[in-house]
Every structure is written in C-alpha cells, then in structure tokens.
Design brief:
With 168 residues, the protein is α+β, with helices and mostly antiparallel strands. The protein is built from 4 helices and 5 strands; from the N terminus they run H-H-H-E-E-E-E-E-H. The relative contact order is 0.17.
C-alpha cells in the first residue's frame, strides 16, 4: 500500500515538474539554433522548429489568423521565460486560428515550439525592422503572476475595511 501511495505521489510530482513543451515536440526542435541566429538570418532557418518564449507585446486578429508579437526572453530549465529586462529582440507568431485578445493579453508570458517561415517587416519610429516570423506547432500560455501591491502580513493591526472604507 505504501508503495502505491509513493508511486502515485511521485507521478504527480513529475507531472508538475514537466517541461513547457511536450517531449515529442521538444525532440523535433533544433536546440542548436539560438534566437540570435534566427533574428540575424531567418530565411536560413526556414522549416526548422525552434523553442522560444517571452512576453506578449501586441496581439491582433486578422483574416489569416492571429499575429502575436513577442518580446523574446531566455527560457529557464522548465521552458518558462525568465523574469529579466534582457531580451534578444522580438519575433512574431502567426497562429492559424482566432485567439482571444483578453486571454493572450500584452504582458502574458508564453513558450512556443514553432516553425521558422521567414521574416515580417514592420515599421518602427526609426525605420523598418525585420521580425522573425514563426508558425506555432505548440504553445504554452503561462499563468499570470499574482502580486499584492503592499504586503499585509507585517501589520498585526491592519484592518482591510479601514476607517475610510466603512459605511455608516
């Protein structure tokens, strides 16, 4: 009985610590290709599958699908974008289906196994910029981080309703 409980607990633990992208897709991805390489020469890597992630900057639905502009971030051991100010640049994911812009909102983090299809030209304030264009094969949208603006545990006399919030 103890062995069954142990194995069940181990299985749940292992599943909670799984990589963001399925092992099948992770095997298909070319891990030798970095984001810098794709950014420099996207046409060279056409047809290759890479695993990239970052924070959503913009999202727009159109006739051909949903364009997601992502600020690239380095991925951690589990495939989650690291919380850092550093970025290698931006890339665009062209998802073939309609995605809800409130769910895939700017600021949300995602990880994608995607096929490189070339570059997309976009104009910036100081000229044109070529974004790598990718078609996602698999995506993981990460949960929003929940932060309190001010910790409440430090004040033992804190009253959340407060005198200014009480109705008379």
């Amino acid at each position: 009985m103890r062995m069954i409980v142990f194995l069940a607990g181990l299985a749940l633990f292992a599943q909670g610590c799984a990589y963001a992208i399925s092992s099948d897709m992770a095997r298909k991805a070319d891990k030798s290709i970095s984001f810098k390489m794709v950014l420099a020469e996207p046409d060279t890597f056409k047809g290759k599958i890479v695993i990239l992630g970052g924070a959503i900057a913009q999202i727009k639905n159109g006739k051909q699908g949903t364009l997601i502009e992502v600020v690239q971030k380095e991925l951690d051991y589990w495939g989650k974008p690291r919380r850092t100010e550093r970025s290698g640049g931006r890339f665009i994911l062209l998802h073939p289906r309609y995605l809800d812009v409130l769910v895939y909102a700017p600021g949300r983090e995602l990880t994608a196994a995607a096929e490189v299809t070339g570059a997309e030209e976009k104009s910036l304030s100081n000229g044109e910029y070529a974004y790598p264009l990718l078609i996602p094969k698999e995506m993981k949208l990460w949960e929003k981080e929940r932060y309190q603006s001010q910790p409440r545990w430090w004040d033992p006399l804190y009253d959340p309703s407060g005198p200014e919030r009480r109705e008379l």
